[in-house]
């Protein structure tokens, strides 16, 4: 018996069966089972465990598959509008638009290719069933979540176009749990890279004669002046503005998109329309929270004992410089949004589409590819907008008496080029680029764990279903 159980034929059959099971749980077909795919397996156990004993026996497993196949059959028939037994790209596009997810025909074809095994550019019942059999979906909103992956990364710079959400996600509270995950991730990522951010601001504001040298000498200067804790000066205001900025930007983005849609709310927005909506939403959020940006710069640059806290800094600015001090550098800040957001979005989309074109049949590039695309695109956006960001920071740092002449943006630009050369417009960019990779990594890890704690994927959807009749 032992010899039979250990025979090469049975071993190969067992390994084949295990490989098939692995492939079924590898939902995005990238050769790895990541944490979200493991959570899917846990969701299946929770859904099929009828006697609530925490495990799934064979009978419960078979019953779960029977019930799940019935649900999948109903969804398949609802998608198959012409009743030909196959789903094409146009039907995928139409089904997503009915639940508020705007996709163009090109993206719908990518979704279709990820499920099409026989190369017919359509999905039959078998392909549909096999694709979603081990995925806990019960309606088109769940299917839409499987077809898209969102990664909200905060590296402490301007955020670009907000994520797209379905109407069901907005009503269920899923959106705000997602946004909260992004805010927590931003809080941790900004705090982790705050010393590099402070060094960047120092180098942006001070001339070569006052503050020169490499990154190490910059840290030595700050440590000597104020000790270890001085490396985090200004970080409190930097993280305090995350929540209002995120909320205002998302709300403004939704309203602007709605106005662009006009009477046809199901029409997918073109990429330039998304860019325009994102830029306008960013400008709206920046206008609302800009005084916090100025305070953050002043607190970052302060010497030991200069201010007792945020309130004291704001009070001194108001008394000595007037209310207009809170909007110093506002114009270059707004002007920087367009090149940053435009290049960031364009590079991100180009990198993602290039990867997808080289990996035909895969609709989801996977988290690491998206994180890599985000890091590269953000870096390109920073390179394009950095001179404006530098001028903004210098204007924010200027202190003046009431009635004293103010240095304009163009005057400041001319002075920098004359005194420091064109390279002066990029002072402080090295610590800014150094923080991209650690910020993206920390942001993503914290974001994923926060989503688990808030139940964005499993508990959130279970709660929604439990409340349904």
From TrEMBL:
<feature type="domain" description="EF-hand">
    <location>
        <begin position="13"/>
        <end position="48"/>
    </location>
</feature>
<dbReference type="Pfam" id="PF13499">
    <property type="entry name" value="EF-hand_7"/>
</dbReference>
<keyword id="KW-0106">Calcium</keyword>
<feature type="repeat" description="Solcar">
    <location>
        <begin position="173"/>
        <end position="259"/>
    </location>
</feature>
<keyword id="KW-0999">Mitochondrion inner membrane</keyword>
<dbReference type="GO" id="GO:0005509">
    <property type="term" value="F:calcium ion binding"/>
</dbReference>
<comment type="similarity">
    <text>Belongs to the mitochondrial carrier (TC 2.A.29) family.</text>
</comment>
<feature type="repeat" description="Solcar">
    <location>
        <begin position="269"/>
        <end position="354"/>
    </location>
</feature>
<dbReference type="GO" id="GO:0055085">
    <property type="term" value="P:transmembrane transport"/>
</dbReference>
<dbReference type="InterPro" id="IPR023395">
    <property type="entry name" value="MCP_dom_sf"/>
</dbReference>
<dbReference type="Pfam" id="PF00153">
    <property type="entry name" value="Mito_carr"/>
</dbReference>
<dbReference type="InterPro" id="IPR002067">
    <property type="entry name" value="MCP"/>
</dbReference>
<dbReference type="InterPro" id="IPR011992">
    <property type="entry name" value="EF-hand-dom_pair"/>
</dbReference>
<keyword id="KW-0677">Repeat</keyword>
<dbReference type="GO" id="GO:0005743">
    <property type="term" value="C:mitochondrial inner membrane"/>
</dbReference>
<dbReference type="InterPro" id="IPR018108">
    <property type="entry name" value="MCP_transmembrane"/>
</dbReference>
<protein>
    <recommendedName>
        <fullName>EF-hand domain-containing protein</fullName>
    </recommendedName>
</protein>
<keyword id="KW-0479">Metal-binding</keyword>
<keyword id="KW-0813">Transport</keyword>
<keyword id="KW-0496">Mitochondrion</keyword>
<dbReference type="Pfam" id="PF13202">
    <property type="entry name" value="EF-hand_5"/>
</dbReference>
<keyword id="KW-0472">Membrane</keyword>
<keyword id="KW-1133">Transmembrane helix</keyword>
<dbReference type="InterPro" id="IPR002048">
    <property type="entry name" value="EF_hand_dom"/>
</dbReference>
<dbReference type="InterPro" id="IPR018247">
    <property type="entry name" value="EF_Hand_1_Ca_BS"/>
</dbReference>
<keyword id="KW-0812">Transmembrane</keyword>
<feature type="domain" description="EF-hand">
    <location>
        <begin position="103"/>
        <end position="138"/>
    </location>
</feature>
<feature type="domain" description="EF-hand">
    <location>
        <begin position="67"/>
        <end position="102"/>
    </location>
</feature>
<feature type="repeat" description="Solcar">
    <location>
        <begin position="365"/>
        <end position="453"/>
    </location>
</feature>
């Amino acid at each position: 018996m032992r010899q039979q159980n250990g025979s090469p034929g049975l071993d190969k059959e067992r390994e084949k069966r295990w490989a098939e099971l692995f492939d079924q749980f590898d939902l995005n077909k990238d050769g790895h089972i990541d944490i979200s795919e493991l959570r899917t397996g846990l969701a299946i156990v929770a859904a099929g465990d009828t006697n609530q004993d925490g495990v799934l026996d064979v009978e419960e497993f078979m019953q779960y598959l029977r019930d799940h196949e019935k649900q999948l059959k109903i969804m398949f028939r609802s998608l198959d509008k012409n009743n030909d037994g196959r789903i094409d790209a146009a039907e995928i596009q139409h089904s997503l638009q009915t639940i508020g997810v705007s996709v163009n025909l090109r993206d719908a074809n990518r979704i279709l290719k990820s499920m099409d095994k026989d190369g017919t550019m359509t999905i039959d019942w078998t392909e549909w069933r096999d694709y979603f059999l081990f995925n806990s979906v019960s309606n088109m909103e769940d299917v839409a979540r499987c077809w898209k992956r969102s990664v909200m990364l905060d590296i402490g710079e301007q955020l670009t176009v907000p994520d797209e959400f379905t109407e069901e996600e907005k009503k269920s509270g899923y959106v705000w749990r997602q946004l909260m995950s992004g805010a927590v991730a931003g809080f941790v990522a900004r705090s982790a890279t705050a010393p590099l951010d402070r060094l960047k601001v120092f180098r942006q504001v001070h001339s070569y004669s006052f503050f020169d040298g490499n990154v190490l000498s910059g840290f030595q200067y700050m440590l000597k002046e104020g000790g270890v804790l001085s490396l985090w000066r200004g970080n409190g205001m930097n993280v305090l503005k995350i929540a209002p900025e995120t909320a205002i930007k998302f709300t403004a983005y939704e309203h602007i998109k709605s106005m662009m849609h006009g009477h046809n709310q199901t029409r997918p927005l073109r990429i330039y329309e998304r860019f325009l909506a994102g830029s306008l939403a960013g400008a709206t959020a920046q206008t609302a929270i800009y005084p916090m940006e100025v305070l953050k710069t002043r607190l970052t640059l302060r010497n030991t004992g200069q201010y007792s806290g945020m309130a004291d800094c704001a009070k001194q600015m108001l008394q000595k410089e007037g209310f207009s001090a809170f909007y110093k550098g506002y114009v270059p800040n707004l002007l920087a949004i367009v090149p940053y957001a435009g290049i960031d979005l364009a590079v991100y989309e180009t990198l993602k589409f290039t990867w997808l074109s080289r990996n035909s049949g895969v609709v989801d590039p996977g988290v690491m590819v998206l994180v890599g695309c985000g890091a590269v695109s953000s870096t390109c956006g920073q390179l394009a907008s950095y001179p404006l960001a530098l001028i903004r920071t210098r204007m924010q740092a200027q202190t003046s008496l009431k009635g004293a002449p103010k240095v304009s943006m163009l005057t400041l630009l001319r002075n920098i080029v004359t005194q420091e050369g064109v390279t002066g417009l990029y002072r402080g960019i090295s610590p800014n680029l150094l923080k991209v990779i650690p910020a993206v990594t920390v942001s993503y890890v914290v974001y994923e764990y926060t989503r688990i704690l808030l139940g964005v994927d499993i508990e959130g959807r279970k709660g929604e279903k439990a409340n349904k009749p």
